[in-house]
Structures are given as C-alpha cells and as structure tokens.
Predict the structure.
Amino acid sequence: MAENTGEGYRIGSVDDRTQVARPDGHWTKRDRATGRFMDVKSDADPFKGVAREPDGRRHHDD
C-alpha cells in the first residue's frame, strides 16, 4: 500500500492502478481490476506512485 509523506512524494506504489500516456500528452489512470479509465491529469506530468503500462512489475491473471 502506498503511503503519502506530506512532502510531495509517497513511499511505495499505488496498488491495482496503472497509467498510460494519451496522444495529447496527458496521462490517464486505469483500474486494473475493471480495466476502466479513472482520471486524467490536467498537465503533462505523470501521476506520482502509479506504475506505467506495460507494467512488468505485476502480473494480472485473467
């Protein structure tokens, strides 16, 4: 489980979420369990503490 430090970063990664860059340069967050897109960043920076797709660190069993 990720833990916010209050200092602009978190310890650990957010579980069951990944992120992918959209063609317009913004990042969108996806729920791994449902496959639904959840949120889009308003700037071009990626989400903090969320793994990028393809992830490689976790394996999702279908």
User: Anything to note?
Assistant: The chain is about 0% helix and 30% strand. The beta strands are 3-4, 10-11, 17-21, 27-31, 37-40, 51-52. Residues 19 and 52 are 5 Å apart (CA to CA). The chain has a mean pLDDT of 83.
